[in-house]
Design brief:
This protein is of the alpha+beta class and 158 residues long. The chain has two domains: 1-30; 38-154, no CATH class. It is built from three helices and seven strands, in the order H-E-E-E-E-E-E-H-E-H. The protein has helices at 2-29, 117-127, 137-154, and strands at 38-42, 45-49, 53-58, 61-71, 79-92, 97-107, 132-136. Strand 1 (38-42) and strand 2 (45-49) form a beta hairpin. The relative contact order is 0.14.
């Protein structure tokens, strides 16, 4: 009985501390997501990409759309667009983070940009990183679920 009492008095706190150590160490070294919006610059243009919304994610191919604002020097207000993109995903379930590589813009149009539309689309393609590292897996899956809910609601016949 004395051995059990000694273990409960001194051993349980030690056991709890040892069990918590790997989790604490993992949390301290787990990279954080960068956050949104993300801003880029190209030839004087300021390009802001807002948080992408996942449209589809099958196997390791993800498709998404995102709002984009581009403001060229001399413009009073930015012009906005919704761009569509896709990339290849690598999921780390331990850290709950996703690396997205081979990111490519599949469409981007700036109808309000007039003569600058082609230049804005080209600038967006040039500045958008080909990889996005440490994107939250939970954020992506929630975005995909919301997109699927919207698609189901659009097809409901009344």
């Amino acid at each position: 009985m004395s051995l059990k009492r000694d273990f409960l008095r001194g051993g349980l706190p030690l056991l709890a501390m040892l069990a918590a150590t790997p989790l604490a160490a993992q949390t301290a070294t787990t990279p954080a997501e960068s956050g949104w919006p993300r801003q880029f610059f190209y030839s004087g243009d300021s390009i802001t990409v807002y948080q992408p919304q996942v449209d589809a994610w099958q196997d390791n191919l993800i498709r998404a759309h995102a709002a984009v604002a581009i403001k060229a020097p001399g413009m009073a207000e930015p012009t906005f667009d919704v761009m569509h993109m896709q990339g290849v995903t690598a999921v780390n379930k331990d850290t709950r983070l996703v690396d997205i590589s081979d990111v490519a813009v599949t469409s981007a149009k700036f109808p309000m940009a007039g003569a600058q539309e082609a230049a804005f689309s080209a600038a967006l393609t040039l500045v958008l990183p080909v990889t996005f590292d440490n994107v939250s897996l939970d954020r992506l899956t929630l975005s995909l679920a919301a997109s699927q809910d919207q698609q189901k609601a659009a097809y409901v016949s009344l």
